[in-house]
Structures are given as structure tokens and as C-alpha cells.
């Protein structure tokens, strides 16, 4: 555990960080994920080989890639140092992790080092932020990172995977084997197609719609942003039913739905509930609701977070599937996608000389920073945890 002095907001002075600043000599750690539901890893052995060939050093905790079917031998052959103690994988300049570290794991980290991981707002508390600041860690939430054209590459990649995967999940739970309605997801000659309602018109919705249409299902897409509805029709390349969200129209669509996908992304803080408990109660028994946005609070009133080992429950005879990290079901695909995003970022970081130089030189990278050298720099987190924050650009200006 990290000792912090929360009462006055002053953090203890630490010894000077061991972080090296010479270019192309970054030491990167890849710890094993300890959360039971997390099976992804941020670098594949192929990515590690590329990084090592460019002068970076990579430390991989044993079994870090096991859940994604990457072996220690593959990482070792790629040039990584495989270690058997978690502390060694955290005692580096840059820690790469999917789930945010525990307080104990933060204690393993170097003073002044860099953490790149998910932030997962719904799970965090002030103690986590104090622990990071107590070690003057620069923490970067990878879901907030932008690319050079203003997109969010990690969110986009995981949303593509989630959107494609939700229809496979729906097909599984509609089958008689899973005690569902006994329907094929789609349709065949002479049999009416299944009805799919998608709430939200972002990337998850786009890929869910593509998969559903490919299987022959009828889809209806709801969103309160007209431009998103227009865009999804253009991306799908065909006329589909679209509507803004109002209680009557959405309620009627839900009564006829076999599958409902909640794919609304929160714009500020927690999601809004758009599917009420009364709407759920009026649905056909045996239908399935998959709330992909459950990690942000969900958009269905009856949705409660579940996990991969027990992913569903019944309410009003409606099957609810509310697992927050759907992409972890296909962990190897997700790991390759994440690795493709972070490998070039790490190479850029090495060329510049470290994470601080990346923050200073690239605004798109700066977007992900939420703690910097002992200060909270994210205004939303400050309001949520009733903490003070400092503007990152002012801190950078003072430093340079």
C-alpha cells in the first residue's frame, strides 16, 4: 500500500526516479492481468520482437499472454525478459496493462514512471488517484487516447469487436440449447426474420447491424443524434429503419423485438436510461437484452453488471446479458488489435525519449492523461471524487 496524506492533499517527497531518458532505451513492463474476467494482453510476441529490434527492452510477467494463447516461450524468443514476480514487471519506466492496477501493484511501480491502462471510471475511487499521485505516476487512460484525425483508436477497435460479437452471443441465447426462444438469428425462406433493435448509432451499433443484416435479420436503429442515424445508413449502404428515441416508438419496437442491443455511449459521465422497466416487462418472453454500455451505467433500467462465468439472468422472462468487457470473449483478436495500436505509439515514444515528451509533442496523446507528476489533471475525475485538479497544459508550460 502507498502512504498518502489525503487531508492536506500533499504527497510525500520520494527519491529521484530511476527512469532513464536516453532515446530508444525505454524499459516496458507487461504484467499478467489478475482480474478474473480479463484475458487480453496489450502486446503480442510479434510486437515485442519489433520493439526489441528497435532498441526497446520489454519485461513480461510469466503467463501474461496465456489467456490469449501466447506462450512465455514466444515472448522469450521475441526478445522479452520473462520474469516470475509481478514486482519486476511493474518496476519499469512504462507499464502496459488492460485493467487498471491495484493499490498493491501501484506500490510496485517506480516513482515518476508511466502507466498506460484502462481507467474504468465506474470502478475507481479517490484512493486510487491518491496512490498514483503519491508515486508521481503519469497515468494515461487508453480509452481516451485520440489519433491524429480525432478518432479514438482503442474505443473504435474494441467497439468493432463488441459489435460483431454481440450478435453471436444473441444467436447463442436465442437457441433452444440455451433455453431461448428457439430461433435462428436471421431468417430462412418462408419464415419471418428475427427482429433486432439497436439503441445507439455508433461503432458498436454499426458492426452489430452489419452482422445482423448479413444473417438476414430485420433491424431498427434508435439514437437521438440525427447525424449519427444518417451516418450509419450511409456506412451500411442500404436503407434501414432509423428513429430518434421517444418512449412510444421505442416501446412499440421493443414489444416486437427478439434481440435488443444497448449501445449508447456516455458523452459526459454516466449513461442515461432510455429503456424503462415497464418497457422490458412488455417485451416478449424469451427475448434477449445485451447492454454493451453497462460499464458506463447501462441504458436499460433492469440491467445489472454480470461476468463471463455467469453472464445472464432473467427478469420479466427476458434474458439479460450485461458483461462489461465483451471483447475479452475473443481475447486473441482483441489483443492483436490493441497491440497494433500501441506498438507504433511505443516506437514514437522511444524516438522522442519517453512519455513526457509524447505528452508535450502530441495533443492527441495528451487527451489520455489524467494524473501527471503528483497532480490530478482530469476535471471530471476531480468533480467526481471532490478533489482539486490542475490543467495539464499549465503544468507542462511550467516544466518546459
From TrEMBL:
The keyword Oxidoreductase applies. The keyword Oxidoreductase applies. Residues 174-322 form the Alanine dehydrogenase/pyridine nucleotide transhydrogenase NAD(H)-binding domain. The lineage of its organism: Bacteria, Pseudomonadati, Bacteroidota, Cytophagia, Cytophagales. This is alanine dehydrogenase. Residues 29-162 form the Alanine dehydrogenase/pyridine nucleotide transhydrogenase N-terminal domain. Gene3D superfamilies: NAD(P)-binding Rossmann-like Domain. InterPro entries: Ala_DH, AlaDH/PNT_N, AlaDH/PNT_NAD(H)-bd, NAD(P)-bd_dom_sf. Belongs to the AlaDH/PNT family. Keywords: Oxidoreductase.
